[in-house]
Design a protein that fits this description.
Layout lengths: L1 H9 L4 H6 L1 H14 L1 H19 L7 E5 L9 H7 L2 E6 L4 H8 L4 E5 L6 H4 L18 E7 L7 H9 L8 H15 L3 E14 L4 E6 L11 E8 L8 E10 L5
Parallel strand pairs: 1-2, 1-4, 2-3, 4-5
Antiparallel strand pairs: 5-6, 5-8, 7-8
The protein binds S-adenosylmethionine.
Length: 255
């Protein structure tokens, strides 16, 4: 709790991100990742390995962009900082551990950006941004990773409507997911997509209690790699329940 409070009160975050819950979600994710370190280890290894392989054959290595860089747990930052002239870490919130890690490299910078395209709209400051990724459609960017953020993008925009007892525009979740995938497809760079697609909750007897589609009806093509992420082992959300996510990695999304 003390650690969470420290991050909550000291992380430099614009008021909007704080009010919309992005800081709270990041701090909760950090706490869970620390509690579930052992259960998450294979998933984090698999994601880092997919990122490394995705960029291994690139001839030009100027700028790499990591979307949803978060805590950097699934980001092989050391490799990327050595392989690329510049690395840009993109998220709504950069907690201290990510800030400290980035400071170790002269070629790593942080960028705050709303990848859902919804934040200004929810604050009444204009329309939804149709293509938040267009800023990365630049000739000097050779590699883009969507690092396990796809399923997260609709969550807080949908919560915003729920908290106000207002129905969200139909298909809001689906259109955010589709928008991210389309935005990735339009980029000139090599794109590595790592995304959790579904959640299965089961009990200690192996009975499935619940299945959730995390991508709002969108099915990804066959992946290059897939694995299970035990996101909440027994004891994390209930003594006799655990939650596991299916994760897919597409090493060259546009192909
Ligand atoms: C499951 S985490 C990704 C894990 C992260 N790659 C790591 O290693 O810690 C999802 C990330 O997406 C970010 N995120 C969620 N909604 C976002 C948005 N609208 N714009 C930018 N980042 C967002 C969260 O802040 C979080 O860091």
């Amino acid at each position: 709790m003390l650690i969470e409070g420290f991050h909550y009160f000291t992380t430099p975050v614009p008021r909007a991100q704080r009010k919309l819950g992005y800081l709270r979600e990041s701090v909760l994710l950090m706490s869970r990742s620390r509690r579930c370190r052992a259960a998450w280890a294979d998933h984090l290894d698999a994601a880092r390995s997919a990122t490394r392989q995705s960029c291994a054959d690139l001839v030009r290595r100027r700028t790499a962009v990591i979307l949803g860089s978060g805590l950097l747990d699934d980001v092989p930052l050391d490799d990327l900082a050595q392989r690329f002239a510049r690395v840009i870490l993109v998220d709504m919130v950069h907690l201290w551990p990510a800030r400290w890690a980035a400071r170790r490299y002269a070629n790593v910078t942080l960028q705050v950006l709303d990848l859902s395209g919804c934040v200004s709209w929810l604050r009444g400051e204009g329309e939804r941004c149709a293509d938040p990724l267009s800023v990365f459609d630049r000739d000097d960017i050779d590699f883009v990773v969507s690092a396990n953020c796809l399923s997260q993008l609709p969550i807080l925009p949908l919560d915003w409507f729920e908290a106000r007892n207002r129905p969200p525009p139909s298909d809001l979740g689906r259109s955010i997911v589709a928008g991210h995938l389309e935005g990735l497809s339009r980029l000139q760079a090599r794109v590595c997509l790592i995304a959790d697609t579904g959640q299965v909750t089961d009990d200690r007897e192996g009975h499935v209690i619940e299945r959730l589609d995390l991508l709002h009806g969108i099915t990804l093509p066959d992946p290059d790699r897939s694995w299970i992420w035990e996101i909440a082992p027994f004891g994390e959300v209930g003594r006799h329940r655990r939650e596991r996510h299916h994760v897919q990695a597409h090493l060259d999304w546009r192909s």
